[in-house]
Amino acid sequence: MRVRAISDRDYLNMIRVSRRQAPASLWIKGASVLNVYTKEWQEHHVVVAGERIAYVGEKEPLIDDQTVIMEAAGQYLVPGYIEPHAHPFQWYNPYTLADFALQTGTTGMVSDSLMLMHLPFSQTAAIMDSLAAHPVKQFFWGRLDPQTGRAHPAFTKESLARMLEHPRVIQGGELTNWGGVLQEDETLLFGLKHARDLGKRMEGHHPGASYETLNIAAAAGVTACHEAIHAADLLSRIRLGMYATLRHSSIRPDLPELVKGWLALGVPWSSRMMLTSDGSTPPMHRDGFMNSTIRVAIEAGMPPEEAYVMATLNPAVYYGLDAEVGGIAPGRIADMLLLTAKDQPTPSIVIANGQLAAENGNLLVPTVQPQWDEASLELQDPLAKRANPEWFRLRPDEDRKAPVLEMLNAVITRLSLEDMPVDKDGYVTLQHDPQLALIAVIDATGGNRTLAVLRGFGEQLEGLASTYSASGDWIVIGRNPQAMAQALERIREIKGGVVLIDEGKMICECPLPLAGKFTSAPMEEVISMGENLVNQLRAKGHVHLDPIYSILFFTATHLPYARLTADGIVDIKSGQIVVPALPLP
C-alpha cells in the first residue's frame, strides 16, 4: 500500500533523478548513512526527488539552482523513527503529539483509537482522515472492547467491521478482554477474525501470560504483544511467531531490564522486535518521544544499530509499510534524521517528505490544525444538582465492615472488607490513618456513586477530582468531603480536567476540556501541567510510578483485581459486583 500518493509526473521525475537525467531537489552529502537492511554504516550520497528518495550510492546527482545541498560530513543519517504503539490521548491528542513527535524525530505512528470510538463514526473517520495530511504518517488500530464493562454501540459486530475496514486502521486491538475470548464472546471473536481476514495485524495484551496462553492467543490471531516484562517473555512471543515490542513507558519502564535480560540469554537480536513508549503520560515526554526510548535502549547495552532498526525497519515490515517507510533506500518516502553521533538519537535535523521539517527541536513546516468544534467532545454533565459533601461519606455495613481498595502498585488494586472506626453519625472516619482516603466514582448519567476507602494513594489528601478516567465517570479522592465537593464542582466549571484542593485552596488545576480527557494545548504546556500535578501528589506521599495512570485506571475493567464502576465495585476474576453502587443523596 502507498503511505502517500505519488503522481505519474513525480514518479517519472524520481526515476529520472535516479538516472541523473533530472536535477535532485535535495542532496545530502558526506553523512554516514545507516543501512537498516544490513545494519552497516556507509558514506553514501542520498538524493531526493520531491517527497521520495531517488538514489543512495557513491555517484553525485545532477543538480540545478533549486537543489538544496546539505553538507553532512561527520554526521549520521538514520530513517525517521516509527512509534508502533501510541496512545495519543493521555491529556495530549493525536495532533499535538504528532507535532511533538516530528520535533524529536518520529515520522510515523500507529495509534490507539479508543477515545475516538465513542464518537459517531463519521467524526472518528474525519479525524483519522485529516491526520493523513500531517508530515507524521499516523495510522490507527481498532479496539474490540470498551474496557468499561458496559455495552456501547461502537462495539457491535457491525461497528467493529466498519472501523477495521477503514483504510487508516491497519490493525485490531489491543486485545484487553482476554476473558471474553476464552468465554468465546461472539463479538470479540468476530473482531479478531475479521481483522485477520482483512490482512491486518492484531495487537495482544498479555502481561504475565504463560506459554500455553500465548499459544491460544496466537491461534486466535494475535500477531504482536507489547506486554513482555522479562526477557523470557520476549523469547516466548517470538518463538510462537509473534512480534515482541520492548516497552519503556511511564507506567512500565521495563526496557533496561529487558535489554540486560536479553543480553544475558545470549541469543541474537530478532527482526521481530520493536520499541515503544506505549502511551506515556506527559511528564515522561520531557525527555522526548521515540528518541528517548532509543536512548534508554542504547544506554542499557543494546547496540545502536539494533535500536535504530527496531524503531524503523522492524515496525515498517510488521505493518507491511517497508516499501514506503522505515529505511533510507530508493523509492522510500524521504523521512530521515541527522544525528551528531551514532549513540545520540535526538536529531539535529528532521527531514520529512523530503523537506527540512525541524531543526534543533523547532518545527519548520506547517502541520495540521484540528477542528475540534466539529466533534462531539463536550464533557457530559447531565446532573442538575451541585456536588454535595454528603456524596463523599461512607457508611459501613451492619457488621461495621467497609470496602478497602488497596493499591498494590500504580494500577493494580485489591479489595478487602475491614473493620473501620466510625464517627458519631455512623460514617467511616479516616482520622486514625493519614494514608487512607475515600475514593468515589460518580456516574453522572445514572446518578449513582460507588464508594470505597483507598489505601496507598498518598497522605493527608484533602480533595482531588478528575474527569480523566477509563470509563468516563468522575473520580473523586480525598479525606475532606467539603474539599472533595469543591474539587468536583471546579472540574465541572472548567468542563473537565483534574483539580487538587489543599487547605481549602486550589493548588493544581489541569483543564482537559475535550471530552474531559484531553486538551488542545501544545505539548510543552501539557508536559508542564502534568509535572505540576505529579509533583503536588508526590509532596502528598504518592509513591507509585505514575499517579496520572493510577487515576485513569481506577475504572478500567481489564486490570485485576477489583475496579470501581458505575454499578459498584466489581471483582474482575468473577465479573461480579461485590459492593453495589448507591444513589446520589
TrEMBL record:
E.C. number: 3.5.4.2
Pfam families recorded: Adenine_deam_C, Amidohydro_1
Domain Amidohydrolase-related, first and last residues per copy: 76-356
Catalytic activity: adenine + H2O + H(+) = hypoxanthine + NH4(+)
Alphabetical UniProt keywords: Hydrolase
Organism: Brevibacillus porteri
Enzyme class: hydrolase
Protein's name in the database: adenine deaminase
